[in-house]
Design brief:
single chain; 190 residues; alpha+beta; Alpha-D-Glucose-1,6-Bisphosphate, Chain A, domain 4; 2 domains; 7-stranded antiparallel beta sheet; 4 helices; 7 strands; 32% strand; signal
């Protein structure tokens, strides 16, 4: 009788190790072969980032993230595709519908973390405009230092379906590129 419980414990341990190995293989494959962002130009050197280990705000999950910073990228850009369900989806859709709230938060700023030193935060300007595209809604955002230097452009499109929200977030060095990429990725989301 003593052999059977030991055999059961060994079988349970082996099963647990096999399951853990499967999880590790899944994580390793997402690091080695991160998912594509549908709708991006395959002719550009997009760097796909692994998303499985990312920690995001609340119930928002990264689906795919890519960046193109090579000299052939015109202009450099980063693209993220995210999904949320339940309350997080509702909050995401509400934020996309009210871009002026985001602008106010950016302009008010938060205290600088000590880890970033004591240098004052640069003064910025920010402006947002609504953006709509075939059932998607969101906004464009332009930010720069008050002297106009270091501009950044973003386009965000969200869509609610069945209690879930899908969001496309693009940050680029040119406003037309941010909008174009957001529209192309949104169009490929079915």
């Amino acid at each position: 009788m003593k052999g059977r419980p030991l055999l059961a414990v060994a079988a349970a341990a082996a099963s647990s190790l096999a399951l853990a190995a499967c999880l590790e293989v899944g994580l390793a494959s997402s690091v080695a072969f991160p998912p594509d962002v549908p709708g991006l130009d395959a002719g550009q050197p997009w760097l796909r980032l692994p998303v499985d280990a990312w920690v995001t705000e609340g119930g928002i999950e990264p689906v795919a993230i890519a960046a193109c910073f090579a000299s052939s990228c015109s202009p450099p850009a980063a693209v993220g595709l995210f999904r949320a369900r339940g309350t997080a989806a509702e909050r995401l859709a509400a934020a996309a519908a009210e871009p002026q709230r985001l602008v106010r938060a950016l302009l008010e700023g938060r205290p600088r973390p000590r880890s970033l030193g004591s240098a004052p935060r640069p003064k910025i300007t920010a402006a947002a405009e609504p953006l709509r595209e075939a059932g998607w809604r969101g906004f464009t955002l332009h930010m720069a230092r008050q002297d106009g230097s270091r501009p950044a452009y973003a386009a965000v499109l969200t869509r609610m379906a069945g209690g879930a929200a899908t969001a496309v977030v693009v940050v680029a060095a040119a406003p037309d590129a941010a909008q174009r990429l957001a529209r192309e990725v949104a169009a490929r989301q079915g």
